[in-house]
Amino acid sequence: MTDERSRRPSEGSRVEAFSDGVFSIAITLLVLELAIPALRGGFETQLVDEWVSYIAYLAAFATIGVLWMGHHTIFSRIRAVDPGLLWRNLVLLLTVSVVPFPTAVIASSFRVGTERDQAAAVVSYGVVGMASGVAWLLLFSYLRGHKRLLDPDTDIHFFRLTEPLITLVGYGASALIGWFVSPPVALLIFLVFPVLYVLRVRSADW
Amino acid sequence: MTDERSRRPSEGSRVEAFSDGVFSIAITLLVLELAIPALRGGFETQLVDEWVSYIAYLAAFATIGVLWMGHHTIFSRIRAVDPGLLWRNLVLLLTVSVVPFPTAVIASSFRVGTERDQAAAVVSYGVVGMASGVAWLLLFSYLRGHKRLLDPDTDIHFFRLTEPLITLVGYGASALIGWFVSPPVALLIFLVFPVLYVLRVRSADW
Amino acid sequence: MTDERSRRPSEGSRVEAFSDGVFSIAITLLVLELAIPALRGGFETQLVDEWVSYIAYLAAFATIGVLWMGHHTIFSRIRAVDPGLLWRNLVLLLTVSVVPFPTAVIASSFRVGTERDQAAAVVSYGVVGMASGVAWLLLFSYLRGHKRLLDPDTDIHFFRLTEPLITLVGYGASALIGWFVSPPVALLIFLVFPVLYVLRVRSADW
Amino acid sequence: MTDERSRRPSEGSRVEAFSDGVFSIAITLLVLELAIPALRGGFETQLVDEWVSYIAYLAAFATIGVLWMGHHTIFSRIRAVDPGLLWRNLVLLLTVSVVPFPTAVIASSFRVGTERDQAAAVVSYGVVGMASGVAWLLLFSYLRGHKRLLDPDTDIHFFRLTEPLITLVGYGASALIGWFVSPPVALLIFLVFPVLYVLRVRSADW
């Protein structure tokens, strides 16, 4: 086994390759949800009026982008994989690859829907965000309990559960704000979350 | 040739990269089949009513996920590829990349169809599952007969034909159940299959 | 430069990765062209009646699959890339990634069109096949004239122009047959081509 | 850390893999925007009449292709990544993955729209091109200020800001031409840009 590992890329590499595929496809598929004007006349107005779709697109793109950054950071500390890690990673990828769906629902709700439709749409996005938080919790807990999968010099505090818990609570709170207060405010929060993440990472050790 | 191999990733690597691409795309394309509410009002109800689509999505996601886990496990034992292996791998990828089709048919049948439509839909999914079983049979038989493609320390019992046979029979039986008994029951079985696989793998040696 | 190459995957690797991405996406996107029944009743009949779409799908899948096999074989002989090779490779990838279009046109023509529509559709597929032949000609000619990009032990006869010429003529002839004789016959030829390629490769040295 | 790097592909590799994924998916998704004839009769005419879509497709394909070539060239000089580079790379990928949208808008505008619709469409494409120029400016400025991320033997003049500035001005000027003079002329310029890039790269040192 050790022998094989020296001959070929590590097992972790292929999990990363598969995960990178899912991340990059999900992030690129988002563009398919932007509505293309199809009726003679008024392209100009339609393209401008679609600005909420663009914000939803940006929020989703940035979210998947920082999720990838997080995944990249985690897996650079992993030196081996086992089935338990693989299926938890699959659950995580599930929450990533489903993102284009609530994004499209948001875009559709601001294009044709009532305010209640918009509220339902941002709640669906919030639920996916919460699911993502749960998936990271699952992954982090597993890694904390299986240190042999990690590089020996990895600080276990790296996998503290605070961060996914904040994600979980943050998206839950945004969903509530979207439902009871204002859908556009929730949408803006979805855009701010990934920006905050990037700012925090930049100031943190790397 | 040996020289080239030391200079570049092994041939097997590129087959894995191409296969990873197909797996990750197929699994991510599934999201395009979820129906986005497009009419003013009732987003909330429509999003909830779509629960069968979500189950079909989960079943297909989990199925492609465990197929990838299986592929990953097999190819970590392969040290060289030849045309015979390549085209059998292509047949396998065909059965993977076609999965979004019956998944969408199931979702559509539960959204608009009669019970007979639903039955036809789950049968189409079952047929794809059976085709997958056949593809794994082809691949395993080939590897059993071409040990020089495998890592020297690979136990040939690793490629016993029982598992793909169980897949073949299992999906065949589910299709029959879907047709003669109940489409929803078949759908639930499609969701249970990958979960069973993960549970079995976890208890098995790794 | 030599130093860098020992530290990181060869330049060729990244071209392969990008190309693998295009091949695997194009081959997986084909599934989106299969028509999903959307009206209550008759799913069963519609799924069976779509058999021409399935044949077109199989033909396109097998074609992209063997094109990938060819690309894999060629690039395993390449040890360096330059801009001239990169853009010729891009032209080749163009002819690959456009394949889902004529495939969908064929499927649509057999679903709703007249025989003349079907003829036009198979001609469009044939034109893409001919473009692919031209792209391979461009690539092979370039490699024959730039041996420094190849592994030193590569036999230049490996890049003889006969094969892409046969592709070019073969797809041209099929298009003519589809236009003047019978569209279904041309469709069957499109399915047979990749099978012949696999048979020929198997008997050839590997 | 150094230890880890010798054991696994460099950090830069995974950024390249993710980026390659986005580039290859964006370039392949373009094909989905080509309109498939769906009404009985006249496939032949429709396929020919769609020639503007083909030009838009070629322009977008070539543009993403040369952007990939540029990305490939840049990242072959990068030996380490940090969060600041990662998010700038994400912004760059955003401008790449959004390309299929204005491309589809152009195709739609020439299929059904007025001349003003066409003008709006080419302006939307030009805006995306300008955004791409800005993203490259961000990336180049960052790399110029963080030489420790680069291979030691990299000439800093390699990252001179002239080139992204030309891109920015070029697409801005094309958008103005498209709006005030003629949309088809702007479309042709979009096709010429990537060709010029390839010609320039070929004559430049490699």
How would you characterize this protein structure?
4 copies of one chain form a homotetramer. The first copy, chain A, is mostly helical. Chain A has 9 helices and no strands. In chain A, helix 2 packs antiparallel against helix 4, helix 2 runs parallel beside helix 5 and helix 4 packs antiparallel against helix 6. The longest helix of chain A is centred in the middle third of the chain and has 31 residues. The first copy, chain A, is elongated and about 60 Å long. Chain A starts with a helix and ends with a helix. The relative contact order of chain A is 0.13. Chains in contact: A-B, A-D, B-C, C-D. At the A-D interface, helix 2, helix 3, helix 4 and helix 9 of A face helix 1, helix 2, helix 5, helix 6 and helix 7 of D.
Brief summary:
Chain A has 206 residues and is mainly alpha-helical.
Helicity of chain A, in percent? over 70%
Flag low-confidence runs of chain A. 1-10
The main β sheet of chain A shows up as: none
- Structural class by sheet pairing and helices of chain A: mainly alpha
Order of helices and strands of chain A: HHHHHHHHH
Can you count the beta strands of chain A? Answer: 0
How many alpha or pi helices of chain A? 9
Mean pLDDT of chain A: 88
Shape category of chain A: elongated
Which labels suit this protein?
206 residues; mainly alpha; homotetramer; 9 helices
